[in-house]
Amino acid sequence: MTTARTNRVFRLRKRPEGLAEEAPLDLVREEVGPLADGQALVRTLMLSVDPSSRVFMSDIRSDLPPVGIGEVMRGLGVGQVVDSRRADLPVGAHVLGWTGWQDYRIADDAVLEEPFAVLPDPLPAPPEDLLGVLGLTGITAWLAVEIADLRPGDTLVVSAAGGAVGSIAGQLAKERGARVVGVAGGADKCRYVVEELGFDACVDRRAPDWRERFDEATPDGIDADVENAGGEILDHVLTRINVGARLALCGMIADYSADPAQRHGLRNLVEMLEQRAFARGFLVTDHVDRYEEITAQLAARIADGRLKHSRVVVDGLENAPSALERIFRGDGRGKIVVRVAADDS
Ligand SMILES: NC(=O)c1ccc[n+]([C@@H]2O[C@H](COP(=O)([O-])OP(=O)(O)OC[C@H]3O[C@@H](n4cnc5c(N)ncnc54)[C@H](OP(=O)(O)O)[C@@H]3O)[C@@H](O)[C@H]2O)c1
Fold first, then answer.
1. Which residues touch 275 (CB under 8 Å, ≥6 apart)?
2. What are the backbone angles phi and psi of residue 309, rounded to the nearest 5°?
């Protein structure tokens, strides 16, 4: 006889108002019913929290529809099959997909149509890395650096340089011979970016005179930008771009507010015209056909020590909202994930 399981689920209470508000989520307990034929029960082991999690809560235009009020909070996770009535998802198998912010999700044919992968056994890397440097985070960084189209000696700026994507992008750009200038929040994080990740310079975006410091750090202007922040940082980057600059628009966390009217404007957009610059927005999820190849490249660099990466593992599903707030406070280095349950294998 199968014992009844209780699912702790974060459901969206209402739309968030402003970036400063705590995530409006309710943690509720629900019983998991028996499985029907063609279903498997996936237990979330590790959950990725991402800047986009905040976007999913808001009713704004995005690549995915907003999470509905009362619906389970969307989130990517690594899970393990703990009960099954389908042969392609045997008990013990590990999967990667939209587990959601919850302990358990029932996988059926519809779920298998979503981005969903059965992972090799044994796992090629710890779950935190499959959600981080060897997952969408690392792949995003790789694609951003490709778009930046660097030549040796170019100056590249990377915002949110100590974060999950930025920390990887900067190192990949160094490998291509660029002079890499990071922007990060706080002197400690800037020290980490330069001393541990090997960036050439890092500007503390919290310093009152950050614009002057930024100009000093980019004496030859900017040839390329991996933009993770947007807002005031991007606007100032535009004042320093050289002719033909390439801007990889990866993220705009400063503008992930629920209310588009609160977004920053760009005063310096005219610089794009004057400098004949190129900006390209991209989404990693449009490049599924390249995941395997890019992951292999990243894995090789980790194996031989060329690529460093940090992660913060927050324990307990109940702490997922505070983990998300840490991202918006800039509190943490590298990838932040939430450990929901121990691996049973
Ligand atoms: N295009 C894609 O497919 C794709 C995929 C994944 C992620 N992204 C985007 O890439 C960016 C980085 O994502 P991530 O997962 O690596 O997150 P992350 O960099 O680990 O965390 C976000 C960082 O942004 C900085 N930040 C927070 N609020 C800010 C603000 N108002 N202004 C400027 N900086 C702020 C903070 O760092 P500091 O305090 O140190 O500055 C924070 O640590 C995000 O914008 C994300 O949406 C895009």
1. 241, 242, 243, 244, 245
2. -150, 145
- In 3D, which of 97, 78, 100, 86 has the Cα closest to residue 35? 86
For β-strands 116-118 and 5-12, DSSP reports them as: unpaired
* Distance separating alpha carbons of residues 233 and 69, to the nearest angstrom: 33
Closest atom of ligand 1 relative to the 249 alpha carbon: 1
Question: What is this structure's pTM?
Answer: 0.97
Per-block mean pLDDT, blocks of 10 residues, the chain (345 long) = 83 86 91 95 97 92 93 97 96 96 95 89 95 97 98 98 98 98 98 98 98 98 98 98 98 87 92 98 96 97 97 97 94 96 80
The residues lining ligand 1, judged by C-beta closer than 6 Å to any ligand atom, are 50-52, 136-137, 140, 160, 162-166, 184-185, 189, 205, 228-229, 231, 233, 250-254, 282-284, 327-328, 330
From atom 37 of ligand 1, which residue's Cα is the shortest distance away? 330
Please give the distance, rounded to the nearest whole angstrom, from the Cα atom of residue 251 to the centre of ligand 1: 6
Cis peptide before 321 (omega within 30 of 0): no
